Amino acid sequence: MDYLVSEILGRVKGMRTVEGLTPNDVAERLGIPVEDYLRYENGEEDFSVTFLSSLAAIYGIDLMELMSGEKPKLSYYSLVRSGKGLPFKRMSGFTYHHLAPVFKDKEMEPFLCVSEYKEDNETKEMEFATHDGHEMDYVLSGKLCFRLQHKEGDETIVNEFILSEGDTIYYDSSNPHGMISVGGEDCIFLAVLHVKEEG
Questions:
Q1: What does the angle CA 87 – CA 71 – CA 19 come to, to the nearest 5 degrees?
Q2: I want to staple 91 with a disulfide (CB 3.0 to 4.6 A). Which of 29, 46, 119, 188 is the partner?
Q3: Does pLDDT of 1 surpass 50?
């Protein structure tokens, strides 16, 4: 397990304990089964940045406190040079660099993302995530297969788009959505999340 991820797991459990919440309490607020939450908390299931954003909103803290253990301090501007930013790698083949890790009270969470291409990307089942708020993804290089689900009556509709360099998608991220690199190469994209605060 990546060292940074193991530290994040400690903070995820630590925040729940400090707040006096049970795993069932947190799972209920996240809208997921408690068994799923425990797999995340125990490091048995890969979690996404959107999962961490939702947790941070529940605890009333900045996402960076969960990711880095430090509270952001800047309020005027934050400059991140090329190739820098706070790195975070998921087991599922996504690497993120947070582009404003030290700016406090952010209204958006900006990430430079790399979706690693693997041969089975074109055929494997896509993972979906949800979080309150909106998200914008802008492709810098490569191709990204993006899927977005929504309900029309009793029917579940899945829209699929192939995004190429320069393409942008903006969406209500409370709908299940997933993405994966296709076309034989990694996809690099900018993701900007706006997660609604609890309460």
A1: 110
A2: 46
A3: no
